[in-house]
Amino acid sequence: MNKPTIDEVLPPKPEARPRIYAYAIADAAHHGQLKVGQTTRDVKRRVAEQLKTAAIQNFTIELDEAAERDDGSIFTDHEVRASLVKKGFNNNTLEWVHCTVADVATVLAELRTGQRLGGTHHETFGLRDEQLDAVNKTFAYYQSIWAEDANATPRFLWNAKMRFGKTFTTYQLAKKLQTKRVLVLTFKPAVEDAWASDLENHVDFDGWQYLSRSSNSDPTQIDRAKPVVYFGSFQDLLGRDAAGNIKPRNEWLHAVNWDLVVFDEYHFGAWRDTAKELFEGEDDTVAKKEAKLEYAGELDGINEDLTVLSNQETDFLPITTRAYLYLSGTPFKALATGEFIEEQIFNWTYTDEQRAKAAFAATHPAKRNPYAALPQMRLLTYQMPDELLAIASGGEFDEFDLNAFFEAKGAGAAAEFKHKSDVQKWLDIIRGGYAAQSAELLKTGTRPPFPYSDVRLLPYLQHSFWFLPNVAACHAMANLLAERHNTFWLGYQVIVAAGAAAGIGLEALPPVRRAIGSGFESKTITLSCGKLTTGVTVEQWSSILMLRNLKSPET
Predict the structure, then answer these.
(1) Cα–Cα 20 to 30 A to 291, which of 48, 107, 170, 456?
(2) Domains in the chain, start-ordered, CATH in brackets?
């Protein structure tokens, strides 16, 4: 009997499947263009080989996707470029096309689905089970109310924590209701990006129209045969002119018979406390500017209208609609006051999410887990040594006060902690290097996983966010971390996202992104007392250190 060859012993090599790629070169000659190609090899290696002879290094791979349809058939880069040309994009230079990454992604979605898509609709993901449940439960409730009274205006609350996907799921509800006119209202204009991108990028909403004050679209010129979504803030729509009349630019909104009105970030009465707390560490001028950006200003002027909301939407917002949908991850006051009955509420918690993640992996081991991108959260608390507790204990509740412990004075390079030596001991503690505490732990035979010491936690602290009481504390921490004896901390780039010098609102974000870069080679610590805490996603931030007191549960 002949011995089997190595090729016979090993499993057959998988057939190389082609991939479509697109890359850009950062120079004037290639500005606004993408090179669209195809390969069965590793895309990064293939592109690097293409450009090596020309010694070009300033390139970026913008897209790398499988060149196949759901049925397994293959399409080529020639088809991709031809489809782009049909859409009107210039293709004068062989494989280079004047277009964006979203344009290429849209064409790929068209080639996969066989559907002609407008704009940059290319996302094809579907609803998860709980999202579908929310749509069906809400739809059924609306139908039951309308069956009793065709002129009734039902109300429904989604008490769903962040990461649920409330924006996308809302649009799917609107589609199931066959709505033509959807009005989305929020206290936080910063969330507009999600409302716009989901509608403009997903294939399910091809042909839908998106409007807002920032979209610069004329509402009188929309196609009335196609669905339209208008996004606005309460502050803008509730604002009146000096005579108490509706602002002229908003009059058309009140003349429309809306099919669905969505109240996003629905925690009435909580928004003002949250805004105040988030930015109380900034100086008054910066805090007012931050709050105005985050909540669109005019907060105090409409507070009285909102505190008497309960079932009286039309009293403070004179519009007509068939149904209301309320969205919030923290609707504590609405739940405590019984504003909604059980039949009017869909609940989805973080525990529900993680339970679904584990269950899917167990029951469908061979399938892609739709919850895989939703990582588990871990909350770690640490006992401070008695000698450090003593310096910041007492106060209203006779407890340890983080704001007192991290109290600081001065600004910039002159900022310094009141209890500098004790804060230094705390820095040693979180590294597991505080001698007094280490000796105590040896006696008890236990050693907790200190964040900047334990190898299991270090990967999650490569890029972290430290939430401090005020601007002075942020600068004092940056100064302390930079002192020469703190050799461990010198390996981290520290960004102070606090105070006027850091910029207002999203102006504070670019320095953070520059410091992080790709996130693989760098290590950063971002210090803030309110900036960049809402409406911002920095994917590399995988941990947060809470170094200040919090009052409102929403915060």
Answers:
(1) 170
(2) 19-113 (no CATH), 129-268+309-351 (3.40.50.10810), 386-546 (no CATH)
